[in-house]
Amino acid sequence: GESVGLHLPTLSVQEGDNSIINCAYSNSASDYFIWYKQESGKGPQFIIDIRSNMDKRQGQRVTVLLNKTVKHLSLQIAATQPGDSAVYFCAENQAGTALIFGKGTTLSVSS
Amino acid sequence: DAGVIQSPRHEVTEMGQEVTLRCKPISGHNSLFWYRQTMMRGLELLIYFNNNVPIDDSGMPEDRFSAKMPNASFSTLKIQPSEPRDSAVYFCASSPQAVTYGYTFGSGTRLTVV
Q1: Over pLDDT 90: what percentage of chain B?
Q2: Cα distance between residue B12 and residue A99, in whole Å
Q3: Is B57 left (phi over 0), alpha (psi -120 to 50) or beta?
Q4: Is B44 left (phi over 0), alpha (psi -120 to 50) or beta?
Q5: Do the Cβ atoms of B98 and A98 come within 8 Å?
Q6: What is the DSSP pairing of strand A32-38 with strand A86-93?
Q7: Secondary structure (DSSP) of B41-74
Q8: Residues B58-65: contacts with CB under 8 Å, at least 24 apart
Q9: Cα–Cα distance between B7 and B110 in angstroms, integer?
Q10: What is the mean pLDDT of residues A27-47?
Q11: Is the Cβ–Cβ distance between B21 and B109 less than 8 Å?
């Protein structure tokens, strides 16, 4: 069936480094993608989204890249901080369906 | 805005008991979602409502699970009878529209069935 997945379950970086979290999706009909951040004991928090008519979108310290050819999504975090330590999920959907989430990548930032 | 409000935050119950989880979506949001999170299966969609009407309940595990949305400001997820394998964190989320907008999640209800 269709699924959204992540390449690596964990990622460890040093404070100040740039982080890249990857996600592969299988549903070529998906037209909307989101990255969420989940801290321990809290619900997922919206970070940034992108629609299928775009290939890049930037926010504050974060950039999402979408490659529809290979069905790949990535989240780049610039100058990673200890407060960025969390589990990151990508999610996708197409019109008429609810978001489907991947299993998440745990980002650990050491100072 | 108080965000999506879920209650209780924690629930411990004995196997066989009825459990009711509650959710108040953000005012003005007309779509509401229930997700379940476990280590093994991640975040799974259970059911979602649009304008108080259930649209997709294909994720509801079995007949022991039921969800209602009697009005735009309240939804419940009921498990009867509960089983140990139902132990998980249950999240409610709401959105301005059914799709193509980010969802706002509540803080979740951690359910433990012993």
Answers
A1: 87
A2: 29
A3: alpha
A4: beta
A5: yes
A6: antiparallel
A7: TEEEEEEEEETTEEEE-TT--STTEEEEEEETTE
A8: B61/B86
A9: 10
A10: 94
A11: yes
A interface mutation test: which of B99, B107, B109, B110 has the most A CBs within 10 A? B99
Q: Is B73 left (phi over 0), alpha (psi -120 to 50) or beta?
A: alpha
CA atoms within 13 A on the CB side of A29: 7
pLDDT > 90? residue A53: yes
| Residues of chain A neighbouring B108 (CB-CB closer than 8 A) | 42-43
Tell me: cis bond preceding A9? Omega within 30 of 0 counts: no
What do you get for the CA distance between the two ends of chain A, in Å? 41
Supply A54's token pair: 């775009």
Residue B19's identity, in one-letter code, is V
Question: Distance (Å) from the C-alpha of residue B108 to the closest C-alpha of chain A?
Answer: 6
Q: In angstroms, rounded to a whole number, what is the distance separating the alpha carbons of residues B113 and B84?
A: 5
* Rounded Cα gap, residues A64 and A7, in angstroms: 16
Q: How does pLDDT run across B18-54, given as a tens digit for each residue?
A: 999 999 999 999 999 999 999 888 999 999 999 999 9
Rounded to the nearest 10 degrees, how much is the dihedral formed by the CA atoms of B3, A95, A63, B102?
0
Compute the count of residue pairs across chains A and B with CB atoms less than 8 Å apart. Answer: 50
Q: Token pair of B7, please?
A: 């209650």
One-letter amino acid at A40 equals: S
**Strand, coil or helix: what is B84?**
helix
